[in-house]
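ok so i was messing around last nite and threw this chain in just to see what happens. nothing serious, just curious
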Amino acid sequence: MNTVKVKDVVIGEGMPKICVPIVGTTIEELKEEAIFLKSVEFDILEWRVDFFEAVEDIEKVKEALHEVRLVLPDTPLIFTFRSAKEGGEREVSTAYYVELNRIIAETREVDIIDVELFKDKKDVQNLIETAHHHHIFVIISNHDFHKTPAKNEIISRLQRAQELGGDLPKIAVMPTSTVDVLTLLDATRIMMEEYADRPIITMSMSGKGVISRIAGEIFGSALTFGAAKKASAPGQVDVVELRNTMELLHRNL
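result:
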């Protein structure tokens, strides 16, 4: 199993790493969030740029990114534009989505970009190529905010993300029952035991799915998301409580 080392953080060994999203709509809000996070213990920062009101102005996005970097220069940073159909705040054209991710990768001010699995295959491959050329890792992600697909479908999407060349295949699904949570956890286990050659990220969302956010070390998810000021998805747990609970599990494994 290969690990992914981003700055000083190794994803795929030991306890799952904790990622905290920032969701400010303006540069000022983003700076405030970043300053607040200086006093919080976490591993990786995710900038959910779809919340940013000037997201369709690439120069403004670059300026905001630079301001965040000034506050948190050494924190591994994921750049994510989550499209509305995958639970994000807005939709942009595919051409703009590709351009935005490409230009941000070229700045080398981020460490990881998030590319959605169900974008056009060629676009996904081109973005992976560009990112890797600039020594940036890629999460290939899929989100279902309505349901939990069948176990073999979850596994197949993670496999597809891996085959495309994503460094960190990711899937997040919505449970409608307790059985759905078990489906996601078992799909994670099977993927890790039988198919994965790199770390994967999985979660079952909402309150029902919280167990999947804290038990990654047992079932095979290498990264989890915790909320510091404002959650970016249903079921995100406070980052301090998340770490304490994960450490409890870790000590007893």
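not much to say yet. The longest strand covers residues 137-144.
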